[in-house]
Amino acid sequence: MKPRLPAVVLGIDTPIGLTVIRDLGSHGVPVIGIARKQDALGMHSRYLSRGLVRAGTREALIEQLVKLGEELGEACLFAISEGDIDLLNHHRARLGAFKLAFADERRMSSVLNKTRTYAAAARVGVRTPRTELPSSMVDAVRASATLRYPVVLKWANPHEAQRLLAPLGISPEKMRYCHSAQELLDYLRPFEAANTYPLIQEYCPGLGLGQFILMKDGQPRSTFQHLRLHEWPPEGGFSSMCASLPPDAHRELMEKSVALLRELDWEGVAMVEYRYDPQTGEAALMEINGRFWGSLPLAWHAGAGFPMLCYRQFGLGETVDQQTYHAGLRCRFMVPETKRLLRILFQQGRIADRRLQFSRLSELFGYLLDFIRPGSRYYVFSWRDPRPFFMDLAQMAGLSRKAPARTAAVPIPTSRLDKDQANG
Fold this sequence. Notes:
D-amino Acid Aminotransferase, Chain A, domain 1, Rossmann fold, nucleotide-binding, ATP-grasp
């Protein structure tokens, strides 16, 4: 059997990185994972051929990758986080040994900057929430008098905000709710010293609807979509439980999502995220994530293996086609899902969106029922690869023993690949 092109995955500490390992490794791809610590989730996967702890500084990490590329000769490189993608894009010229499975700097900038994203959305007819970007406190005061509350605050470019606010000892929040003009202005005043302000958006009721698309040469090679059933925090954040939707649901909206990515000249994977109101059928664009998304485990469980599609498209140069997948599966991220339940049971007063009302009994019953629901899946647990879940459980309980990570430069035996292909 001809050896597979190896894949290097930078960022195997999360369920996203773990899922990339599982998808690639179950297809016989030799996977070298790089984590921040030896007991990271991905380090315990049976599909990981070799694990490395990442170097301590940005420059040292690039050197680590350059040396790894020289050793491997040729490999496909995946990066999970936006910060790592940004770093690698600044050093593309030094990563010539790798076929890069993530978008370049120009394309990433187009989706990280929400102002540019919303401008592109307007050009293709995608609805966006009313958004204000004050340039001063005078602008903020003027806007505050005309807004409908609550409003949601986000940063147009989170990385730039972090750079400007760090010297002031301020860490920008990803999302913030304000329920009155006075609350809004009080929150904005500390940012005046840096002369930078977040976007102020009208509140859009409903559920998170994510449409996931692999684009190549202006065409959608594969699509998938889900509905966020639960989020952490409960008022809106990231998905703690989501469900796969049929391919023909929201067809018109999917066409608009494709048009939006085409307008941005996008290449690679992206999640186009909307706030969808089931009562009105309206959807408003929230953002585009130009990377593998948090609910990637759901797509993998459903049969939409985007990491392997990226490997084939950008690593091997193959043309990939739409994959069939299972609709109606639910996938739970148990730690935030449990935190969500506890917030609803005991701390409903801390839920920032005061319009939300939850039945404690119904939420508790649903939480327990999902353990026996046939269509339930999990972000971390998998019968095919259970060790990451049990190691994570032991670490959370404070019972884990330090196990040596597979950090040595050990050759990848062909027998291991054959076994993984047979069992995958």
